[in-house]
Write a structure and sequence with these properties.
The chain is an alpha/beta fold. The protein has helices spanning 32-45, 85-100, 112-132, 150-156, 190-195, 212-220, and strands spanning 56-60, 69-79, 104-109, 138-142, 160-166, 200-204, 225-231, 240-241. Residues 236-289 have low confidence and may be disordered.
């Protein structure tokens, strides 16, 4: 979690029934310099070489659906097979909610087998996480193209809400997610409910999501950032772990990323690598336009 050191907890406050609850206000973004400085502090603490360039994704979304460009940071966590990857990212969700107030997450999986495995894991660990986090409400919505009305709950709930979806369910313009639906009357199409929450993506086995079409699909959701949880490879790019971390600060210490600041946006002021808070932390001011 030290990657987001200095982030003021965001509270969306009271919302009317149909108002969408987002992870950040519309015109606020995570500042690149702040992320880079925090990343360097994490790398120094873990004895890793400092990254000169940070990982990011930028480009257009699916043709005919989201033709405008979107840019977001992504961070990779590599773990050995069988060491609790799903548990780690579920707990990461609870920690991000507790520390920073973020409540909208989309878990993207490459296929049905992992999709079903995640649902089972959530069932098995539900009481465990209730005990750890004081009965923090947690809703898992397993995406079903025939039950699009559930996306309204995802977008408007004030509690931690997680959408579980396979890549194939939203990587084509012909998917139901992009079609107007009688289940969701109004001007928004189903995918726009997701976009407006400014979600955090949790990518399970992201090495299976490297095609340009897959990248376009992920951009179409307009996330503020993505966390990539994958099996360790010979081309390891980041800190990795052979077993679930014993102190939960570690999963958040494994990422690399970049974020372009919006015009007239102030950057976060954060503690230096030695942990000395030399300046008050604050979120970036809104940049309108």
């Amino acid at each position: 979690m030290r990657l987001f050191e200095g982030m003021t907890r965001y509270d969306a406050g009271f919302q009317l029934g149909d108002e969408i609850v987002a992870n950040l206000p519309r015109y606020e973004d995570l500042a690149e310099t702040w992320l880079r400085d925090n990343l360097h502090a994490v790398q120094e603490k873990n004895g890793l070489p400092q990254s000169m360039l940070l990982d990011w994704d930028t480009g257009i979304g699916l043709e005919g659906i989201a033709d405008e460009s979107h840019r977001f940071p992504h961070f990779t966590i590599e773990m050995e097979t069988g060491t609790g990857k799903t548990y780690v990212y579920l707990r990461t969700i609870f920690e991000l909610r507790r520390r920073f107030g973020w409540s909208k997450f989309v878990i993207v999986v490459p296929g049905i087998a992992i999709y079903e495995g995640v649902m089972k894991n959530v069932q098995v660990t539900r009481n465990h996480f209730r005990a750890l986090y004081g009965n923090e409400p947690f809703d898992l919505i397993a995406y079903d193209g025939s039950q699009l009305s559930r996306l309204r709950h995802f977008a408007t709930a004030n509690t931690t809400t997680v959408l579980l979806i396979t890549l194939d369910a939203f990587n084509k313009a012909s998917n139901n997610l992009y079609k107007a639906s009688e289940e969701l009357p109004g001007e928004r199409r189903p995918f726009q409910f997701i976009q407006e929450t400014r979600p955090i993506l949790i990518l399970d086995e992201p090495q299976n999501m490297e095609s340009e079409k897959a990248k376009q699909a992920l951009r179409t959701l307009k996330p503020i950032l993505a966390l990539r949880f994958q099996r360790r490879t010979a081309q390891a790019r980041t800190w990795s772990t052979a077993s679930p971390p014993s102190t939960y600060a570690q999963p958040g210490e494994t990422h690399r990323s970049v974020r372009r600041d919006r015009a007239r946006q102030r950057e976060y002021r954060v503690p230096g690598p030695d942990g000395d808070h030399t300046a008050a932390a604050s979120r970036p001011k809104c940049a309108h336009g």
